[in-house]
Amino acid sequence: MIGLQILQRQRRIADDFVKAFASIPVANVSDVMTRMSAGGPRLRPMHKGGRMAGAAITVKSRPGDNLMIHKALDLAGPGDVIVVDGGGDLTNALFGELMLNYAVSRGLAGVVLNAAVRDIDVIAAGNFPVYAAGVTHRGPYKDGPGEINVPIAIDGMVVQPGDLILGDGDGVLCVPFADAAEVLKAAQAKVALEETTLANIKAGKHDTSWIDATLKRIGCETSPR
Q: Residues 169, 175, 181, CA angle at the centre, nearest 5°?
């Protein structure tokens, strides 16, 4: 039944991809995905620090209710990231200290909630990746409805069960399962290019001629120096 279903994940991003992406800045991955996908600026890291990379277990939750998140924690295993579409509602917290400790004990790679969390002092003191849209002390309801391992969308970013979920200080990004190899190759090339640019800046050899070329192309007049 739509709104009340728990499905089995039919695929899962390979661990080799998770490891390869783990050291690449989310901004670089976003750039090579043409800057067209993002979890939105409200999804901020609530933990002290550290990157996140893992396979998605998706949850679609009624705003203010975390019953299906509890069930997803039971279903998730090492390296998984629970991604929750809570409708962006910040009235009730859907995740807190007890669930955090359970997630750590299960070996999860992180939790992403388009919703609020609580016990922020505990979350902020640790390195377990938690991304959320806000904070409130008001607790959740536990009655449902909700769905697990269905397609969800957060601020236009579609997440399918088993997709690769990345996070760092800049936010959250989903790399679709079928595109991981192509995106990885492009992201690695982007990293190499930026390393070259940084080296040129430090050596005083940074080429900025593209700026004036672009201004000329768009018809912007500049005064002589």
A: 120
> Is there a contact between 42 and 88 (Cβ–Cβ < 8 Å)?
yes
* Interatomic CA distance for residues 200 and 223, integer angstroms: 27
Global confidence as pTM = 0.94
CATH superfamily of 4-178: Ribonuclease E inhibitor RraA/RraA-like (3.50.30.40)
- Sequence spans of domains, the chain: 4-178
List residues bridging with 157 in a β-sheet. Answer: 154
Contact between residue 39 and residue 174 where contact means Cβ atoms under 8 Å apart: yes
Residue of 28, 41, 35, 33 whose CA lies nearest to 176:
33
Summarised one tens digit per residue, pLDDT across range 138-159 is 999 999 999 999 999 999 999 9
Q: How far is CA 69 from the centre of its chain?
A: 17
Question: Under 8 Å CB-to-CB from 65, ≥6 apart: which residues?
Answer: 92, 94, 140, 141, 142, 143, 144, 145, 146
Q: Going by C-beta distance under 8 Å and a sequence separation of 6 or more, which residues neighbour residue 95?
A: 66, 69, 84, 111, 113, 115, 117, 118, 130, 132
Residue 104 has pLDDT above 70, yes or no: yes
Band of the pLDDT at 97, cuts 50, 70, 90? very high
